[in-house]
Amino acid sequence: MIGLLVGAPLLGAAVLLVGGRFLERVGHWVATALAAVSLVLAATLFFDMLGREGEDRALHQHLFSWIPVADFQADVAFRLDQLSMTFVLLITSVGTLIHLYSIGYMEHDPRRRRFFAYLNLFLAAMLLLVLADNYLLLYVGWEGVGLASFLLIGFWQHKPSAATAAKKAFVVNRVGDVGLAIAVMLMFTTFGSFAFEPVLAGANETGEGTLTAIGLMLLLAACGKSAQVPLQSWLGDAMEGPTPVSALIHAATMVTAGVYLITRSGAIFNGAPDAQTVVIVVGAVTLLFGAIVGCAKDDIKKALAGSTMSQIGYMMLATGLGPVGYVFAIMHLVTHGFFKAGLFLGAGSVMHGMNDEVDMRRYGGLRKYMPITFVTFGLAYLAIIGFPYLSGYFSKDEIIYAGFSKGGAEGWILGGVMLLGAALTAYYMTRIMLLTFFGEKRWQPDAQGHEPHPHESPLSMTIPMMVLAVGSVGAGFFFDQGEAFVHWLEPVTGLGHGDSPVSHGTVALAATGVMLLGVAGAWWQYGRRPVEAVAPSGRWITRAARRDLLQDDFNHAVLVRPGNYLTRGLVYLDHKLVDGVVNGTAASFGGLSGRLRRVQNGFARTYAVSMFGGAAVLVAATLLMRAV
Amino acid sequence: MSFPLLTATALTPAVGAVVTAAVPAARRTAAKWLALLFSLATVVLAAAVLLRFDTGEGADRFQLTESRSWIADFGVRYELGVDGIGVAMIALTALLIPFLIGAGWNDADPKGDEAPATRRWRPTQGFFALILMVEAMVILSFAATDIFLFYIFFEAMLIPMYFLIGGFGDRAGEQDSEEGQARQRSYAAVKFLLYNLVGGLVMLAAVIGLYVATADQLPEGTFSLQAILDARAAGELDFGTGTERWLFLGFFVAFAIKAPLWPLHTWLPNAMGESTAPVAVLITAVVDKVGTFAMLRFCLGLFPEASDWATPVVITLALVSIIYGALLALGQRDMKRLIAYASISHFGFIVLGIFAMTSQGQGGATLYMINHGVATAALLLVAGFLIARRGSRLISDYGGVQKTAPVLAGTFLIGGLATLSLPGLGPFVSEFLVLVGTFSRYKAAGIVACAGIVLAALYVLILYQRTMTGPLKPGLEKLPDLKVRELAVVAPLIALLIFLGVYPKPLTDIVNPAVEHTLSDVQKTDPEPETPAVEAAP
C-alpha cells in the first residue's frame, strides 16, 4: 500500500517517458490521474491511521534488501508515521492540484508530455524522500527530487538562462548532498546502521561531539535543498522553470525537505546544542536575507522566491529550537505550502494573461481584468502576512512565541528578528499586491508590437487556485482547533514548553502591529502615488538586494574564478609536466622518446616496429624464463 | 574432469576472431554478423559460468577450476578458476562486447571513395576480429590463477589493442588533414603500447622474482596462486619484508599503469581520444579493469604485508587521481578526452575502495568496476554516435542538440547522470560503498573523496549544457536522432544501469564471499561501530 503511493507516479513517469508519441494527446491526463491515485491512497491511509491510537499509528513496510555488504545493510523499506503522513498529504494534494493547473498552463507547449513525466517523477521522488525508513533511501529521494528539479528548471532548455539555472541548482544542491552522504557515513561508523529507529534510539548514548558532527552535516544538506544561507544562491535562478514548477517544487514541497530532515533527526539535534545554535543562526540569517531580497525584486517570481527563502528561514529557526519548535515548524510548513503555492499559481495566472511578462512594473491595475486571480491571490497574501485568523497568523505567531521562549537575551534577539521579518514580509507582499493588482496599467507593446490583453485564466487553472485559497484561509484555524495539529505530531516529534517572557497575546498583538507597519510602509511607497514603469536606481542597499545581496558576485570571485584558473593551469601542467616527466623518465631509461618520434613518421613502419617490439618482448620473456 | 567451461568461454571469441578475419573482403556484412554471433555465444557461456557459480556457505573460493601442466620445468601450469570477483568481471566483459560490436557496426567500413587497393584490404573484418581477440585475452586474464599465465594474457592483449587504437580512428580529429589524424592516432597507439610494455617488463621482473622466492623456500618453484596462498597460510612461505615490498611494487606499477593511476595516466586521454568510441569503451571499461582486478587479486593476495605498508601512499595517489581527474575533465574541450579524465577520477575511487581494506570498500570497488563499465559504455557510445554525425569531438562545435535529436540527448543525459552517480542508477551503489568503506577506516580520505561527487556533477552537467541545450548551433539543423541500431545498443545498457541501481543484491551476493576471502588474506576486519545501536525488533 505504501509502496503503491510511490509506485503510481513512478509508473506514470516511466510510461510517459518511454511511451512515445501516441501518448501525446492523453499523457497529461494519465499523469494527473496517477497523481490523484496517490492522493486517494494517501487519504485512505490517513483515515486508517486516524482509526488507531497515538503510539500504534506508525506503519512499516519492508520491500526488499537493497545493498547488503557485511554490516552495511541498506533496505528498501518505508515508514509511515504522523510526520510522513503530514508530508504525504501535502505533497499529493498540492501535487494533484498543480498537475491539474499545468494542463491549462502548458497547453500550447509541444513538449507537454515530457513536462508531465517529470512532474510525476518529482512526486515519486518526493514521496520516497518522506516515506523512507532509513537515511540512505532518503538520500535516493533527496537526489531524485534534485534531478526532477534540474529537469524542470531547465525545461525550456533552448533558453541558455534556463539551462544555466538548472545546472546551478543541481551543483549547489550536490554540495549539500555531500553533507547528507557524510552524515550517513558517520551514522554507519557510529551506530553500525543508518535506519531511523536504531540511529535515533542510539543518539541518547552517543557523545555530543559525534552528534554535533552528524547534525552539522545534516544541516549542510538541509541548507542546499531548502536554499538557506550559504547555499541559497540557486533558488532565485530556479524561477526560470515554468511557474507550476516554482509553485510545487520551489515553494510548497521540495524546498521544505530540509525542515523535514532536521525534524526527522530531532533526536540527534536534541543531543547537540551547538548544532542547534547553528541551525538557529542559519534560519535567522536566511529569514532576513530572503525578506530583504524579496523587497527589492521587480520580477514577481523572484520576489516570491525571496519570500520562500525567508519563510523557510522561519521554519529552520523553529527546528533549531528543539521540541519547542518542531511541531510549529511543520505547521508553518503546511500552511506555507498552501498559501505560497497559491501565490505562485496566481503569479502564473497573471503571467499567462500578460504574455509571460514577469516585471511587476509592467503590470498594474490587474484586479479589473483577473478578478478570480485577484481574490485568490489576495487571500493567500493575507494569509502570508499573518492577518488575524488566517493560516499564517497561527503558524507564524507560534514560531515567534517559541523564539521568545528560548529565554534570556537570545530569546529577545530571536523574537525581535522574527518580528522584523514579519514586518518585512508584510512590506514586500503588499508591494507585490499593489504593483500587480492596483494602480494604473503600465504595460506596453513588446518588441514585436504585441500588446498584452490581460484576461482571466481557464477553469483548469483557477480551480486549483480557489482550492489553495480555501486552504490558505482555513488551514491554520482548523489546525488550531483544540490544538489538533500539536496532538497529531507530538508522538513523533515530541513537544517542549519554554518559558517565554511575553504572553501569547502580546506576541499576537506585536505581530499584528508590525504587520500593519509593513503594509503601511509599502502603501506609502507604492500605493499613494503612481509607480514608475522603470525602476529608479535606488540606494546602495536596494541595488545590492536586487543583485541578491551580491551572492553571485561573491561565489564567482571566491569559487568560480579561482576554480577556472586552477583547471586551466592543471590542463597545462598535465600536458607539460606530468606527461613530460613520465615520458622523460622513460626516455632516460631506454631512449624511448627518440623511438617515439621516429615511429610516428609512417603508418606502416609503426605497425612493423611495434609488432616486432611486442613479439620480441614476449619471446624474450619466455627465453628469460628458460634461462632462470 | 568436467567440461572446461572457462576455457570454452574464452576460446569462443578467439575462434570468432579467426573466423571473422577469414571472411572475404566483399562480405563485410557477413563478418559483422559472425562477430556478433560469436560475442553472443560468449554471453551465453558467461551466463552459464554465472549460474554454475556457487555462492552458498562453505563453497570453494575458486570454482570451475581447470588445471593442466604446461611448462613443467618451471612449474608453469594452465590453471583457471574464478572467485566471485572474477565471475562478475567475466560477465561484464562478455556482456559489453556485443554492444560494442553493435555500436561500431559501421565504424571500420572503408569510406566510399576509398577503393580497395588489393583484395586483401579488409579493415572491417580486422576491426571485429581484433575486438574479439581482446575479449578472449581479457577473459583469460580474469580466469587465470597461474601467475605466469596471467602475465602472458596481460601482455598479449596489448597487441590487438595497439592495432585497434592505431588503425581505426573516429575521423574527427582537431586537425582536418587525413595525415595529421593518422599521425596523432599512431602517437596515441605507440604511447599506449610503450607505457604498458614498460609496466609489463617491471611486472615480468617481479614474476620471475616471485618464482625464485618460491623455489627457494618450497620443495619446488610455483606460479600457482592457490599454492602460494596455501603455503603462506601454512607458514611455509615467507618472502621477508624487503623482498615482499619489491615484488609488490613490481606488480603494482604494472597494474597502476593499466588502471591508470596518477601520475601514470597520461596515455589514457590520448588513447581514448583518438580511437573510435567502441574501442575507447573497450579500453576504459574492459581492458583497464584488468589492472584494478589484478590489484585486488594479486597485490593483496600475494603480498598482504607490503600492501599494508604501501596503503598510505596508494590512498594518497587514489585521492589525487579522483580530484585531479575530475578537475582535468572540467578543463577539456574534447568530449572524449573529458570522459577519459572522468574515468581516471573513477579509477581513483576503485583503487581507494580496494586499499581501504574493508568489506564495503572492496565490495564497492568490485561493483564500481562493473558499474563504471556499463555507465561509461552508455555515455561514450552515445557521444560516439554524436561525433559520427558531426565529425567533430570539440564540445564547442555542438549546442542545442536536444532540439533536433531529443532521444540522443536524453540517453546522453542518462549516461551522464550514471557517471555522476545519481542514486537509482548502478554507479551510486558502488560509489557510496567505496566512500563508506573508506570513511569507516580513514575519515579524512573519505571526506576528501566526497569532493569528487561535486566535481562529477560539474563536469557532466557542463558537458550536457554546452552540447545539448541552448540555441541550435549552425550546421546541426539536420542532425538525425538515434537510429534503431543505436537505440538497441543504448537502451539495454540504460535498463541495466537502472537494474543495478535498484536491485544490486544478486551481484553483491556473488561478490561478498570473494571479498571476505581477500580480507582474510590481508588479515583485516571491518572497524566496529563506536556505539552499536540496539537492533530494532523486526
TrEMBL record, chain B:
Keywords for this protein: Membrane, Oxidoreductase, Transmembrane, Transmembrane helix
Topology with respect to the bilayer: Multi-pass membrane protein
Any one GO molecular function term: NADH dehydrogenase activity
Transmembrane segments: 31-51, 85-106, 126-154, 192-213, 246-267, 279-303, 309-331, 338-357, 369-387, 407-425, 445-464, 484-503
Top enzyme category: oxidoreductase
EC number in record: 1.6.5.11
Biological process annotations from GO: ATP synthesis coupled electron transport; electron transport coupled proton transport
A GO-annotated cellular component: membrane
Pfam families noted in UniProt: Proton_antipo_M
Family: Belongs to the complex I subunit 4 family.
Main location: membrane
Localization (cell): Endomembrane system; Membrane
Protein name as it appears in the record: NADH-quinone oxidoreductase subunit M
Organism in which the protein naturally occurs: Streptomyces sedi
Annotated ranges, domain NADH:quinone oxidoreductase/Mrp antiporter transmembrane: 144-451
